[in-house]
Amino acid sequence: MNWPESTGSSRGTAARGAILSGVRVAIMTAGSRGDVAPFTGLGHGLARAGHEVTLVTHERFELLAARAGIGFHALPVDPRAELESSRGQALHRSTTGVGKLVRVVAMARSLAGRMADDLVTAARASDALLLSGSVAPLGHAVAEGLRLPSLGLNLQPLAATREFAPPMLGVGSWGPFGNRVVGLGLNLAVEQVFGAALPPVRARLGLPPLGTAAALRSRERQGWPVLHG
Q1: Domain of 167, in residue numbers
Q2: How many domains does one find in the chain?
C-alpha cells in the first residue's frame, strides 16, 4: 500500500487516512507517567478498531502498554533517574512555572539526542506517527524524512494564542498581545530542546538543514494537524 507523504497541505488528510485504514501506528511520547499514561487509552481504542499500535516511550512504562493491549518500543532514557539526579532536584525546588520550564528545557535538551535513534527505528516499522508535544519537533522530522503521515497530539493547548496564556506556565492572562508573545516564546523553547539532536537526524534522513525556529514556521505553514485535550 502506498501512503501519502507527510508534507505540504495534504498532511492532515494523509494522517487521518492512515489512521482510518488499519495500519501500523506508532504513538511517540516522552516524560513522566502523566505524559505517557493518557496515550494508552488512545492506543487501546485504536487497537480495538483493528490497528497495530505501538507505544514508543521510556522502558519503565512498558507495563502500561501491556495492560492496554498494545505493542511497545523502549526509549533509552529513564525519567525517574533523571528526576532523582542533581538536575532533577533543582527542578523540584523551582517555585514558579517559568523556573520549572527553564530547568525542564535544559534537562530535556541534554537527553533528546539519546532518543533520536530509537525514534527513527520505531518509525521505520510504522505506517503513521502520532506525536505528543514532548517529541513533536523531532518526530515530525522523522516522519518527513521517511515520508510517513503524522499527527500532533498535545495533552493541553500549546499553540500560541491571544485568548489565554500557555496553560503549562500556570499563570494568569497577560492580555491578548502578551499571551501571544509568551506562547510563541514557549513554542520556541520547546523547539530548542531538540536544537542539537535535529540536524544529524535531518541529515541522516536526507532532509535539508533547517533551524529550530524555521522548522516551527514550516510546520505552521504546511498546516500540520495537531489535536489536544
Answers
A1: 8-222
A2: 1
